[in-house]
Amino acid sequence: MADSGTNGYESPLGVTLDDDDPSPGKATLTIVIPELKKKLTSNKQPSNGTVNVEFNKCSVTITVVMDTGKKYRHIQSDIAIDIDKSKYSVANKKIVIVLNKVS
Question: CB under 8 Å to 38, separation ≥6 — which residues?
Fold first, then answer.
């Protein structure tokens, strides 16, 4: 289940959940935000905004605030997550989140 775009937040342009990751027990969530630019010195934050990824046991919440004032949010729920082993990275135009699932 997914939830986006409430309380002044916009929905990202695209969201995909690839549950068929080649590694067992993993899923890849991709959040597409066209104006997002990768920071050369960090794979966790863009050069033109702030990204916050909050992992919970049964969901992940992604919040993006651009320097222009635009705000995006996506909540992916109904997925059991190993919080300590899940990770994310920021690339140009997208955020890629690798979720380690709890079996």
Answer: 46, 47, 90, 91, 92
Cα 71 from Cα 64, distance rounded (Å): 6
Decide if 46 contacts 30 (C-beta within 8 A): no
Neighbouring C-beta atoms of residue 75, cutoff 10 Å: 16
Task: Round to whole Å and give the CA distance between 24 and 68.
Answer: 39
pTM value is: 0.88
**Amino acid identity for residue 32 in this structure:** V
User: How far is Cα 25 from Cα 21, in angstroms, rounded to an integer?
Assistant: 8
Token readout for 103 is: 């079996």
| Contact partners, residue 51, CB within 8 Å, separation at least 6 | 44, 45, 62, 63, 64, 88, 90, 95
The 10s digit of each residue's pLDDT in 6-49 is: 678 999 999 999 876 566 789 999 999 999 999 999 899 999 99
